[in-house]
Specification:
The protein is mostly beta strands and about 425 residues long. It contains two helices and 19 strands. The strands form two sheets. Strands 1-3-4-5-6-9-10-11-12-13-14-15-16-17-18-19 form a 16-stranded antiparallel beta sheet, with no helix packed on it. The longest helix is centred in the C-terminal third of the chain and has 14 residues.
Length: about 425
């Protein structure tokens, strides 16, 4: 089981919860506010041998997401997701082949209200105006609270293989998943907003996701070599039911990443880690109703080093990872007649951010002790991520907010229990 909690300070233009890749049909407001988000993830599995070399597997995943805010308009979002993955696995020698089927569903409740009704109806507070993004630029304006639901159907399959070749362990996983979402507006009584009297379908979003993950490693008493490659393709299609022309928004994304890690040992324990990481990302967003077309390609390069310090009953790991983010393609087309609040507050800042060159720095500390809780091993981790802009994008600086900064600092503290 995994539990995490996140606090966002001065977050604007996002009243949604846990998003799928490129997902449209999300609410937003310009007003920055404080938000709290938490996730609970639970996984349970079992296996059973049918005959010699043939095994039946079963895996259950449950995810719960909740997010809320304390500034009008304030969200109260809940998302439940449940997937079940049965599979068959065949083992012969050092080789294991597997095939799995994925089936699942997700239900979301999205309530966005105003504690002070004046903010919802007055024109004196445009930054608190509630909007709905229906693609990537085409928006709808709310004059009051918003209550909606989403229902997802998840369907897919997975293939896995693992073996040993010339003292190298090889593991490969491929998955193809289809998600079909329907979004509903809830029309309610004025005296009972939590009891919907009518449910109308507002929009649909379909997402096809393909993932490939390959891990190759070798291990001995002196050193370890590890090569990790993963790639992902997302293809999304959205349809606004009030639009008679079919799909109003298309999303296409391709990501590829490779990582190499060398672990040097001393007295058969890892002492020093050295490696590098490279990633290339490309996406295209096309909103045909607002005529917003955005395409971006960027690359991330970094080197990493780590040092382990051992005590009698504890250990400390220190890691550092400097790198660069370089934009290759950054193309945006927006007709002047289609510029709106979404363009100014989201599209232009995103174009500026993703079209800029950055230095990245990551520092990590993890202290592990098998006796911290007496019953199980546990660790405390501290991670610091720093982003420094080296070169601005080519956007006209008058189009982006004056508060756009040159650097970003993220600090996270974690506590892990190993059972």
């Amino acid at each position: 089981m995994l539990f995490d909690k996140q606090w966002d300070d001065s977050l604007a233009n996002n009243l949604a919860g846990d998003l799928q890749a490129g997902e449209p049909f999300t609410h937003f407001a310009i007003k920055p506010g404080k938000y709290e988000r938490q996730n609970i993830r639970f996984e349970a599995g079992m296996g059973y041998r049918l005959i010699e070399g043939l095994y039946l597997g079963s895996l259950l995943n449950y995810n719960y997401h909740w997010s809320t805010g304390s500034v009008d308009p304030r969200p109260d979002n809940k998302l439940f997701q449940l997937t079940y993955t049965p599979g068959l696995f065949y083992k012969v020698g050092n080789t294991v082949l597997g095939g799995e089927y994925v089936i699942g569903k997700a239900d979301g409740d999205f309530d966005i209200g105003f504690k002070n009704s004046m903010y919802a109806r007055s024109q004196l507070y445009p930054e608190r105006q509630l909007w709905l993004n229906t693609g990537y630029g085409y928006t709808a304006k709310y004059g009051k609270e918003a209550y909606s639901q989403s229902r997802d159907k998840i369907d897919g399959w997975k293939f896995s293989a693992s073996t040993i070749l010339y003292n190298w362990n090889v593991k490969v996983n491929y998955s193809n998943t289809f998600l079909a979402r329907k979004n509903f507006n809830l029309l309610t009584n004025t005296d009972s907003i939590n009891n919907p009297i009518k449910e109308t379908i507002h929009s649909k979003y379909e997402l096809v996701t393909q993932k490939l993950d390959a891990l190759i490693f070798t291990d001995n008493s002196v050193r370890n070599h590890q090569v990790h490659f993963n790639a992902e393709i997302n293809e999304g299609t959205a349809q606004l039911m009030s639009s008679p022309g079919g799909a109003n928004y298309l999303f296409d994304e391709h990501n590829a990443q490779v990582q190499y890690l060398l672990s040097l040992k001393k007295k058969e324990r890892v002492n020093i880690e050295l490696g590098f990481e490279a990633q290339v990302s490309h996406f295209a967003k096309k909103d045909f109703l607002a005529m917003h077309f955005y395409e971006n390609t960027k690359a991330d390069f970094s080197v990493q080093g780590g040092k382990y310090l051992y005590g009698k009953n504890h250990s400390l790991k220190i890691t550092a990872q400097p790198g660069l983010i370089l934009p290759f393609t950054n193309s945006l087309q927006v007709p002047e007649t289609q510029v709106n609040v979404f363009t100014k507050s989201i599209v232009y800042p995103e174009y500026d951010f993703l079209g800029s060159t950055f230095f990245t720095g990551k520092l990590g500390l993890m202290y592990y002790s098998p006796s911290m809780l007496r019953l199980a091993g546990s660790s405390i981790s501290l991670n610091i991520n720093y982003l420094q802009k080296l070169k601005d994008s080519d956007i006209n600086r008058t189009l982006v907010p004056t508060y756009t900064g040159k650097n970003q600092l993220q600090i996270s503290l974690g506590f892990q229990i190993f059972l």
